[in-house]
Amino acid sequence: MGGYRAGSLALQRQLGVRERAEHVGRSLGQGIKPVAAAFLELQPLLVVGAADPATGRVWASPVVGTPGFVRATGPRQMSVAGGPPPTDPLATALTTPGTPVGTIALDPRTRRRMRLNGRLRPTARGFAVEADQVFSNCPKYIQRRESYEVTGARTPGPARLGGRLDRAGMECVRTADTFFVATVHPAGADASHRGGDPGFVRVDSPGELSWPDYPGNAMFLTLGNLRTDPRAGLLFLDWETGTTLQLTGEARTEFSDGGGRRVRLTVTEVVRTPAAVPLRWSAPEYSPANPDR
Known about the structure:
Oligomer: single chain
Strand content: 35-45%
Number of helices: 5
Shape: globular
CATH topology: Pnp Oxidase, Chain A
Helix content: 10-25%
Low-confidence stretches: none
């Protein structure tokens, strides 16, 4: 249900932000308000995070459609027309009743984002999610992209699988200004966003990457989940070509003496799909909140 999980509460206490987190946590609800419903209907992209029921590995996957393909169809229900292709690592999870899922709709045009977590129910047209948590985040670290076009002639290339990052995958990570991260906890799943100037994600080896945990809203939902379950899935999207890079593995948070935090992911599996998303976004205007590296 709504509220903070054990891992998040432990981190909030450790870092001395429990009071602030309690104040921010009042935004955690179970209902989809009219402004949130209107926001969802404008989006061409939804990112979904979950664990594959067959392997237990956590992935983050894009689901794309004409605006209106994601809609609120009840006080606590979001319905999605369509889903990922059969080759996507989450294809099975998103057709399995009761799968815990985390979702995030991010609009680069307005630097707004909305997250909805809950349990999945397959439908005739796609799937629906009965919400346990619904909330919005501040625009921090979201790069503004003023417009997009649908490239109908774009045909997805064959998925390239591996256990480590190849040269193209490493370049995708090093040049990224945005990625999405999926995590899980005993009662569900969560999908979140991370952003920064290109280079904020570091490739430490073909099997390991890391990124700084910039100051945020003190909720520590992602890091709290990782504290109790290290499984994580990352999605990198090339906003111009539509190529996706999906990683799964285990992540841990490293704390420095100066109070900084860095998250390190050990990669288990990689899926890179050329032209997977039929959207081409305009060039970014980097968030003024992005720290100097």
